[in-house]
Structure formats: structure tokens, C-alpha cells
Amino acid sequence: MNSLYHSLETSRQSLHQWLDRELAQAEEQTLLRPIVEQLRKDHPRMSAREMYRLVMPDTMGRDKFIGMCEEWGMLIERKRSPIRTTNSLGVTRFENLLAGLELDRINQVWSSDITYYQTVDGFCYLTYIMDIFSRRILGSSVSRSLRTEETTIPALRQALRTRRGMDLKGLIFHSDGGGQYYCKEFLAITNAAELRNSMCEHPWENPFSERVNGTIKNDYLMPWGVDTYSDLKHQNTRAIKLYNTVRPHSSLGHVSPVTFEERWLSTAINTSQQVMSLPPRPPR
């Protein structure tokens, strides 16, 4: 190996430092893509330079960021490329398990997404996990970083605590293709809980999470004038409580998600008890 390093005119340490930088940049590009896509959707005329100032990535400068946006087809007045790029390190994508699925119970499908929120302190990120059947937000996180340990992992752990004592085996965890949902640390938790990972190809294939993102931001946080990171953490908890326990949902018979779950569970328990109390069928 020493002869190889010598022929490359580098050292073992320099090569490993370069590799670490490349890995960090590839990881950050994967984490940034959903956020850049959402920024472009929300701000069709915002320049890549302005997006760079908002996002302020850790591993790349402005020109590298602009080049990345160009590669993705997200510069102004450029048609978006139908080709999705992947990095050479490989990308995990799970099958979309929601296609054709009929929902009939809680803890059948959880859905999750990450969105951004701008404060005077800079960009922050909100991660939500909800039960699609009841529309209840089960877990969330507020972070300054897009890294998995600050976004999806704390939100998932909170969701699992919310459902502690319930049978979650075989539950479908649905998300977009963001890197936070397939890193090994996140998958270790879903595997331990015996959840089944599912991913969509396009944002419209995850509509419930997209909708709850907009509801929390546009109906609660923004009208309340939340503009600092510390206030965002506090008010996010308040918004979720109001959403879960007070806000009526037309799709739930105009009751809140928590009330809907309580009624559903009560009905399910009564039905189960009635089935158990039926007399045995007489032999023919």
C-alpha cells in the first residue's frame, strides 16, 4: 500500500481525510435534496444563491451548491430533469407498500416527512410522524440540522413511546426517499420494532404528511409569529397538542384524532369481547 500512496503522491492520512470529506458531502447532498425541492416548489423564482444563503450547507461552498442544483434541474427557468441522480455510494429505496392498501385500523401505517421553517436564527427543520388512519401526530422533532440523529430518529423514538404497549409488528413506516429514512441507525430502530419500511417516488405519494406539515406551519406556527429556534421548539409541542386533541377533522367525522382513536379503540374492544362471548357452534 505504501508504494500505492507514493505513486499517488499522497499519504494514508491524506487519502482517508479526502475520503471522509467525499462521504460527508455525498451524505449531505442526499439529505438536502428534499429540502431544495421544497424550496423550489415554494419559491419558484428564488435563485440558487439565495437558497444557498438560507440552507448554508456544511460540506460545500456556494458554487458547488449551485452546480448541485443545476444537476438536479432546479435552477430558475430550467426544465426539471426527469432523470433522478444517485451517488456512487448507493441509495436504498424500499418498495411503496401503500399502493392499493385499504386502511382499517390504527398502527397499520405511519407516515413521515421533513419540512423547513425559517426563523431569525436561520433555517430549522420539522419532522413529523403520524398515524394515517387516525391522522394523529405521534412523534416530532425540531432541529437546526438535517442529520438523522436530530430529525427522524428522535421523532421515531417519540412515536414508539406514544404507542408503548401496543402491538406494532408489521406496521408500515412510509416516507419519501430522504437519506434520513434509510441510514443504518434509523433502520436499526425500525428493524428492532419489527416495522416494515416503505418509500414513495414522488411527494404526492405521501400526501398525508405533506398536508400535516402545511397545517402545523401555516395554521399554527406562522400565525403565532414564531420566529426563534427556542420558541419554535416550545410552540411546536403546543401546536401538536391542539392539532391532536382539539382540531376537528372532516375525514374523522369532525372530531379530533385523539377522540377518533378513543372511539375506535372502544368499538374494537367491545367487538372483540362480543366475539369471545359467543357460545360455541354445536356439532353437526
Summarize it.
About 45% of the residues lie in helices and about 15% in strands.
Query: The CATH topology of the largest domain is what?
Result: Nucleotidyltransferase, domain 5
Which bin fits the share of residues in helices? 40-55%
Q: How big a fraction of the residues is strand?
A: 5-15%
The CATH homologous superfamily of the largest domain is termed Ribonuclease H-like superfamily/Ribonuclease H
Unreliable parts? 78-90, 275-279
Number of domains: 2
- Helix/strand class: alpha/beta
Global outline: globular
N-to-C span: 81 Å
CATH architecture of the largest domain: 2-Layer Sandwich
- Say what oligomer this is: single chain
Number of strands: 5
What would CATH call the class of the largest domain?
Answer: Alpha Beta
Kindly state the mean pLDDT as a whole number? 84
Main sheet characteristics: 5 strands, mixed
The strands making up the biggest β-sheet line up spatially as 3-2-1-4-5
Number of helices: 9
Global Rg: 23 Å
Order of helices and strands: HHHHEEEHEHEHHH
Description of the structure:
- By secondary structure, this protein is an alpha/beta fold.
- The chain has two domains: 2-71, no CATH class; 109-266, Nucleotidyltransferase, domain 5.
- Helix content is 45%, strand content 13%.
- It contains nine helices and five strands; from the N terminus they run ααααβββαβαβααα.
- It has a five-stranded mixed β-sheet with strand order 3-2-1-4-5, with helices on both faces.
- A hairpin with a 4-residue loop joins strand 2 and strand 3 (136-143).
- It starts with a helix and ends in a 7-residue tail after the last helix.
- The relative contact order is 0.10.
